[in-house]
UniProtKB/TrEMBL annotation:
Xref: CDD domains: YjgF_YER057c_UK114_family
Gene3D superfamilies: RutC-like
InterPro entries cross-referenced by the UniProt entry: RutC-like_sf, YjgF/YER057c/UK114
Protein's name according to its UniProt entry: RidA family protein
Length: 118
């Protein structure tokens, strides 16, 4: 069995932004552009997700599942077109839900699972 690798560890919040376990990679708290438009926040979250994947040698095409968290689920209408642009037809399974965030100005966040082929 391979070792579990934790990256971007935040001791204050007691979490790891990237956890590699076998061929699966779990990425959390992808958000950016607080206080900006929902389109900018969605794109910013995908920027963070992409940057984290690049750190471990993967791309968005490796993402197999996403949880898309919205402050207002009505903003879901913006997500599809942005996913089409970012994933180039290699779409992950996903769900979207509405939630409260810890700070005002955060309207969108992604948590994702990626798969690393051997």
């Amino acid at each position: 069995m391979r070792e579990i690798i934790r990256t971007e560890i935040d001791e204050e919040w007691a979490h790891s932004a990237i956890v590699e376990a076998g061929n699966h990679v779990y990425i959390s708290y992808c958000m950016k552009n607080e206080g900006q438009s929902i389109e900018n926040q969605i794109n910013g979250a995908f920027d963070v997700l992409s940057e984290r994947l690049e750190k471990i040698g993967l791309t968005l095409k490796a993402v197999v599942q996403m949880d898309c968290l919205f402050r207002d689920i009505k903003d879901l209408s913006f997500l599809g077109e942005i996913i089409k642009e970012r994933f180039e037809g290699k779409y992950p399974a996903r769900k979207a839900c509405e939630t409260k965030f810890i700070r005002d100005g955060i309207d969108f966040q992604i948590d994702a699972v990626a798969f690393r082929e051997n």
